[in-house]
UniProtKB/TrEMBL annotation:
Biological process per Gene Ontology, one example term: rRNA base methylation
InterPro entries in the record: RsmH, SAM-dep_MeTrfase_MraW_recog, SAM-dependent_MTases_sf
Highest classification ranks of the organism: Bacteria, Pseudomonadati, Pseudomonadota, Alphaproteobacteria, Hyphomicrobiales
Keyword Transferase: yes
Natural source organism: Paradevosia shaoguanensis
Annotated catalysed reactions: cytidine(1402) in 16S rRNA + S-adenosyl-L-methionine = N(4)-methylcytidine(1402) in 16S rRNA + S-adenosyl-L-homocysteine + H(+)
Family the entry assigns: Belongs to the methyltransferase superfamily. RsmH family.
Binding-site residues for S-adenosyl-L-methionine, renumbered to this chain: 41-43, 58, 85, 103, 110
Protein name, entry field: Ribosomal RNA small subunit methyltransferase H
GO CC terms in record: cytoplasm
GO MF entry, a single one: rRNA (cytosine-N4-)-methyltransferase activity
Physiological role: Specifically methylates the N4 position of cytidine in position 1402 (C1402) of 16S rRNA.
Length: 329
């Protein structure tokens, strides 16, 4: 999502890799683009300004003011559908879609609101629910057994010290529930220490909990296949991710051969499967000027491709290297 919310009397900051996303989706004049992760509306606004029609989707009810602003300014060309991008094809039934953009992860809007519980840098309830319903991060931290918690932190956060962190969490919650972001962040720092200049020791654990709470990997895979179903030949898909686990899924979705086993030269040559995506672009990353303006963009990666004429595949996690919690640590 990568965009920052500012007061209502100002425009939101430019979302990450905006120019690259617009280039990947062109031509835009008169095109129908699905913005599957609306957030503050930065991509939607830029698409509308470029002459596109936009159907935007988001599950976060807090986006309402930004939706209302665009509806007032673009009443004929902007539509908003509350929900998840994993079901984006259901939001555009009967409409011919030309492109889809997905900006995966937590938005700056959510990070900057302490009471959402996404940031270890702000005191707030340990929540992290994008849709503001269902199981929270506090529920996971206070109810999972030690092995389950360690596996989760390892698989979704690539936290190598997950077992030690889980031990400290279980010991601490025996005395009192862990209910706030700073309470958990301090506990993790106590468990594994902190070296000057390194990223905050709670970074990976907070990422893992957020991914688990919001089923983000499932959402991503489902959303990619939904885009494959809805886009006709020549349709364009642009996906911005913010960490290596997401990027690997998108990379293998576009090009399944990237994750497949090498074929032995002693085996008969098999026919390559039909390609659902062509003109797969080289991964794009933010330049120095963008990073200076928005340091949070530093880990963002854009991957884009064009839909072929091959029929859409059924949803499958096979070959996408989606992390699994079971037995991970």
């Amino acid at each position: 999502m990568g965009q920052r919310i500012v007061p209502d009397n100002q425009e939101p900051h430019v979302p990450v890799l905006l120019a690259e996303v617009l280039d990947a989706l062109r031509p835009l004049e008169g095109a129908l683009i699905v913005d599957g992760t609306f957030g503050a509306g930065g991509y939607s606004r830029a698409l509308l300004d470029a002459g596109a029609r936009v159907v935007a989707i988001d599950r976060d009810p807090n986006v309402a003011p930004h939706v209302e602003r665009l509806q007032a300014q673009f009443p004929q060309t902007f539509q908003f559908v509350p929900g998840t991008f994993s079901e984006l094809d259901q939001a555009v039934v009967g409409q011919a879609v030309d492109g889809v953009v997905l900006d995966i992860g937590v938005s700056s809007m959510q990070l900057d609101e302490a009471d959402r519980g996404f940031s270890f840098m702000r005191e707030g309830p340990l929540d992290m629910r994008m849709a503001q319903s269902g199981e929270s991060a506090a529920d996971l931290v206070n109810t999972l057994d030690e092995a389950e918690l360690a596996n989760l932190l390892y698989a979704y956060g690539e936290e190598r010290k997950s077992r030690r962190i889980a031990q400290f969490i279980v010991a601490a919650r025996a005395n009192e529930p862990i209910t706030t972001t700073t309470q958990l962040a301090r506990l993790i720092e106590k468990a594994i220490g902190r070296k000057p200049g390194d990223m905050h020791p709670a970074t990976r654990s907070f990422q893992a909990l957020r991914i688990a709470v919001n089923a983000e990997f499932d959402q991503l895979v489902e959303g990619l296949f939904a885009a494959e179903r809805v886009l006709p030949e020549g349709g364009r898909l642009a996906v911005v991710t913010f960490h290596s686990l997401e990027d690997r899924i998108v990379k293998r979705f576009f090009d399944p051969d990237k994750g497949g086993p090498a074929q032995s030269r002693h085996m008969p040559v098999t026919q390559a499967p039909e390609r659902r995506w062509v003109n797969v672009a080289k991964a794009a990353k933010p330049g120095a000027k963008e990073l200076e303006r928005n340091p949070r963009a530093r880990s963002s990666i854009l991957r884009a491709a064009v839909r072929s004429a091959a029929p859409a595949r059924p949803v499958s996690f096979e070959g996408l290297a989606v992390p699994t919690v079971r037995g991970a640590a």
